[in-house]
Design brief:
The chain has 483 residues and is an alpha+beta fold. It is built from nine helices and 24 strands. The protein has two domains: 265 residues, Neutral Protease, domain 2, CATH 1.10.390.10; 168 residues, Sandwich (Immunoglobulin-like), CATH 2.60.40. The strands form six sheets. A seven-stranded mixed β-sheet has the order 4-7-2-1-13-16-15, with no helix packed on it. The chain has a five-stranded mixed β-sheet with strand order 18-19-20-22-21, covered by helices on one side. The chain has a four-stranded antiparallel β-sheet with strand order 5-6-3-10, with no helix packed on it. The longest helix is centred in the last third of the chain and has 24 residues. The two termini are 26 Å apart. The structure holds zinc ion.
């Protein structure tokens, strides 16, 4: 996600030969999970019927006895406060806070003993009849109805669009070495700060039944039709998000093998060029993406934007320069989130600092170095002003980067630390080792961990692989005050 910011910087070293090596996908973390979804949208009632079949091959360990899913519509029922930071609550719910709801008609499978449905908020645990052997598969089915909340968040409907992101049970990432797992699965609630989505890539197909006049874009390309129903499918997606709009235009643009679709009210066709240029630049300097279709959705939104696999929401209330900055940032998340997974809850700086720095790269390569410098300066000023203000108030302002999203005082602390300080720390590395070396290191990072998962040490190692000591340099910059 991008809380709006503007950045700033310093002179970048001229890029020399960019890396043109295609990303090699690692199967190490890629659990062979397949989702088949049937989604029936009633636009008049703002309800959605979903039938879901998840096929899971046990690639985790011998004898797993449960499968743990995240079901985030539960976060919007108001059983608990809505998952929105205090500073964004009025823009998230401009018509007042209202509840979404859901009802499960069925949850189970032939190998299922019992199912715990959201006894812990947003968490579904499917207990199996008998432990599953390594390599053995099982099929879990869910049928449920959703009533969407009216809000400008990632999930729900607003004046313009229906945003269906993380709207169905998603299998949690398996990591038996992580802290606080449930049978080895890492579950996160829908936290109000940052992006709580940490999942492995999976294969998806989705059949959509909605009014034929409605425009739709999805993380997976549209691959066919079944009567009036639209079919979307793709392998190895980080998530599957779907956006619908009854009265929308779709503008497309293409470059270097990529096609961008912009879902908008007629006012944002120009943004398609921003996105194809960003895709082109990042592909050249990092690596190409496996899926060549990307979508932007311009809609009322609580912050500047939010990233999803092969798609992003961008607020329809930004200035021209904010729009280009946000598009460049969100497109960068295709490398730093969607392709290269990381723990956005425990290590939120990792993808956000890279997306911020990639935005600087975008403006540099678009021959707008002065604007990149303005962004750098604004990031630095925002950070320094925050620290000075907190100190004047007698508050702790250490802006420790190595915190989980749940450990931040508020959204401002999070924004200043993750989007400003961590990005500036990465930029100091660029100045020290050269932009070309940093790009090559990030290219190696994406190639090594593409469609997989990386922690902070993996990023440090990728830097060291290109420039000895660069990993320690970044770690030191992230740990310093940068004042
Ligand atoms: Zn972001």
């Amino acid at each position: 996600m991008k809380v709006f910011c503007s950045i700033t910087v310093i002179a970048l070293v001229i890029f020399l030969t960019p890396s043109l090596v295609a990303c090699e996908t690692s199967a190490e973390e890629y659990a062979p999970v397949t989702y088949s979804l049937s989604v029936d949208v009633d636009g008049a009632e703002n309800t959605v019927k979903v039938d879901e079949t998840v096929t899971v091959v046990n690639s985790f360990r011998e004898g797993i006895d449960r499968l743990v899913f995240a079901f985030y519509p539960d976060a919007f029922t108001l059983k608990t406060p809505p998952p929105v930071d205090d500073v964004n609550i009025s823009s998230a719910y401009p018509y007042g806070i209202n509840a979404g709801s859901y009802a499960f008609l069925q949850a189970g499978g032939k190998d299922v003993k019992s199912v715990s449905l959201c006894e812990t908020p947003c968490k579904i645990v499917v207990y199996l009849d008998a432990p599953l052997s390594l390599g053995e598969s099982t099929e879990i089915t869910f049928s449920f109805d959703l009533t969407l909340p009216l809000c400008n968040t990632r999930y729900g409907y607003n004046d313009f669009s229906v945003n269906l992101t993380f709207f169905f049970p998603v299998l949690c990432r398996y990591d038996e070495n992580a802290a606080n797992t449930d049978g080895g699965f890492v579950f996160y609630g829908y936290e109000s700060t940052g992006d709580p989505f940490v999942f492995n890539c999976a294969d998806y197909d989705l059949t959509l039944d909605c009014p034929s006049s409605w425009k739709a874009v999805c993380s997976a390309p549209e691959t066919g039709k079944d009567g009036n129903k639209r079919i979307f499918s793709a392998d190895a997606l980080r998530d599957l998000s779907l956006f619908l709009a009854p009265d929308a235009e779709i503008t497309t643009a293409s470059k270097d093998g990529y096609t961008v679709k912009v879902l908008h009210d007629g006012s944002f066709s120009y943004a398609a060029e921003y996105a194809v240029n960003a895709l082109s630049i990042y592909s050249e300097y990092f690596c190409p993406l496996p899926v060549k279709e990307y979508s932007l959705v311009f809609t009322p939104f609580m912050t500047a934007g939010a990233e999803f696999c092969n798609a992003a929401i961008v607020s329809d209330a930004l200035s021209l320069s904010q729009t280009e900055t946000t598009v460049a940032h969100e497109v960068a998340h295709q490398w730093w989130y969607s392709l290269t997974g990381s723990d956005q809850v425990r290590s939120p700086w990792q993808d956000e600092a890279l997306a911020q720095w990639s935005t600087l790269l975008y403006f540099e390569k678009r021959s707008m170095k002065s604007y990149a410098d303005t962004i750098r300066k604004n990031l630095s000023t925002a950070y320094k002003d925050y620290v000075a203000t907190q100190k004047a108030l007698g508050e702790n302002a250490d802006c420790n980067v190595f915190r989980s999203t749940t450990d931040y005082r508020d959204g401002t602390d999070y924004y200043i630390t993750v989007y400003c300080k961590a990005a500036l720390a990465l930029d100091t590395v660029a100045q020290s080792i050269g932009t070309r070396n940093l790009c090559n290191a990030l290219s190696g990072y994406a190639r090594s961990y593409g469609l997989s998962y990386a922690d902070g040490d993996d990023l440090f190692s990728s830097l060291d692989a290109v420039f000895a000591g660069a990993g320690a340099l970044l770690k030191s910059a992230l740990s310093s005050t940068l004042l």
